[in-house]
Write the structure tokens for this entry.
Amino acid sequence: MVNVLIVGGAGFIGSHLVRDCLSRGDKVTVLTRASTDIWRIEDILDRLTLVRLNLTDTEALMTALRHQPPQRVFLLGAVTRFATANNDLADVAEAMRVNLDPLRAILEALGRMDVPPQSVVRTGTLAELSSDPGIARSATREWPETTYGLSILAGTHYLRIWRDRCGIPAVTARLSLTYGGGQSPDFLVPGAIRQGLAGTPMMPRQPDARRDLIHVDDVIEALQLVADNADRLPPVVNVSTGRPIRTGDLAARIARLTGHKPPPEPAKTGAGNRVSAPPSKELRALGWRPRVSLQQGLRQVIAWERARKTDNRHPERRSA
């Protein structure tokens, strides 16, 4: 049994990770903001410790850590969308506040522990990299094009410096576009599936854009493997497939799986919009491979969404 701390354990990926840790027999503590809706883990609250607090309050974090010192720490959860304006950088300041400030406070608290954790794993994103093939770059050129990507990249380097100074094995796992049951319909796959099940299949505005998709089960396997081997891994690894799909083709596949004819594509746009990177060789050397095919994963999410429609316990919150 391992004492595991999961910051953001009530979110989409975090809730899957919580369940996986519990299935391993781990003792799990979940830290969340006071405002977080915990519907994804409500049915397992008796099996974990839930702590609600201000994630930028170092002293409150220290109190929580002393109560159950973690051996393994997972840092998940981030705000992904920000209102932007052409004439200021207010969105950048907000992204740094909500995505970087909690990381700073949590790492400070972890660094002050009498017995430090054995590993720290943080989730990043391929949005930290460039999606423009016109930019001369390697497959891992750091060139964020969104406020979200910028704030996450700042955290990636913050964690790298903290690792060097504290000597605690810490790794950022850069995730490709993760999908699975329990995800908000604001995201591409669940949004398209819900529209298909509602009888109005969608087609994205940029059908030629390409996205590297990975099922949440493969992500959880990778995160656990990274935690097991953090002292042997570089500060950053890519958890991805390296095989992006056209969003127009994805939408057409979802339409067919939900029983509809794919809608016509708009004028071809988005050819230069590509978010993908090959999985890190260090992760592959440990035996990790994506195991859930896209067809299997989409069928699983469709089944989850159909079950959600018949679940009347918290219907108003199942879309969060």
About this structure: The chain is about 35% helix and 15% strand. The first helix runs from residue 12 to 23. The two ends are 32 Å apart (CA to CA).
